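In response to reviewer comment 3 from the previous cycle, which asked for concrete evidence that the modeling workflow produces usable outputs, we include below a single protein chain processed end to end. The sequence was submitted unchanged, and the resulting structure tokens are shown without manual editing.
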Amino acid sequence: MPNVTNNIINRRSAVLAPVFLAASMSLLSTHAFSDSTQLGQVVERKKLIVAATPNNSTVFKSDGYMHGFGYDLSKGYANQIGVDLDVRIFTSQAAALKAVKKGDVDFALTSANSVALEQIGLAPVNLSCGDKPSLYRFGLDAEVNWSFADGSDPLAQQATSFICSPTQVGINKKLAAFYDQSLLKDTYSKTQFDKAMRDRLPAYKASFKSNAEQHKVDWQLLVAMGYQESHLKANAVSPTGVRGLMMLTSATALSMGITNRTDPNQSIKGGANYIRQMQDQFDHVPEPDRTWFALAAYNMGPGAVRSVQKKLKSQGKNPNDWMEFYEYLSTNSARNSRYTQCIHYVTRIRTYLETIKLTT
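The workflow returned the following structure tokens.
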């Protein structure tokens, strides 16, 4: 998947913030604040520069793959004030915080302790907005925050208003659920995952790589999908009749030219071909959202995905923003089991994908 490993930094369009904030913030211009304020300077340069230290609560960055709970919220704030986001990776929190003090960046995205930050003269904005249990629940670091050099500057004040608005707090919870880090924390799940990666993946790794190269997809994404589908078991069969390592339906296998779904190489080939087709159908969506939409389409069909997108558009929302789509599925999951299944499917594959990227 060339686009999960490349060009990821340009992601997520502006819809993470509440409507009433959007209306007020739309008044922002280079003249809305004096250039002496940090916010005025950010708006004038049309870029929000953020120092970040990668972890599972701030930003994931491996093999060019950038996303994460803190990253998405930073992108949402940048969108809200009408500027681009420039995330600069630092190897230590001390270095990132020093960059804030020196004025090299606008704020730092770290998991540094708030008390310690205040002691060195920085103004932290906790991204849980006081709801730390919501982050704990999904295995995220409840200390994750934005650290500003001047808490009285409109940039920091607007950031607090953004992150703690009632609508955004609800979105934050759903975002935390999407970046759930608890999935592979329990002993059983971790043991099963490690066993599959150690004992089964080596036999199929060459096939994953060759088929990924042929269809121009990320081989590690295919592995994550294969684990979600069958735990990398070539003879897997579901009660509904889908079978094989990539659990293809008979109709999908036929359309992909697959004659034997239990042949692992054919199954991987069919899965690679099909996810490529799904990605092509959403090529207008920026990465990595494009990948999440493609996975949703792989799970419940492109027609079902487009149906939800039409509903979002009719509500005045961005149909190509994954969090808007995810929120719709979550809100309406009680009356549609397919939505629940899709949420679990994409969330789990995202977790497996990042784990594979960090360990291989």
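The chain has a mean pLDDT of 89. We consider this sufficient to address the reviewer's concern, and the full set will be provided in the supplementary archive.
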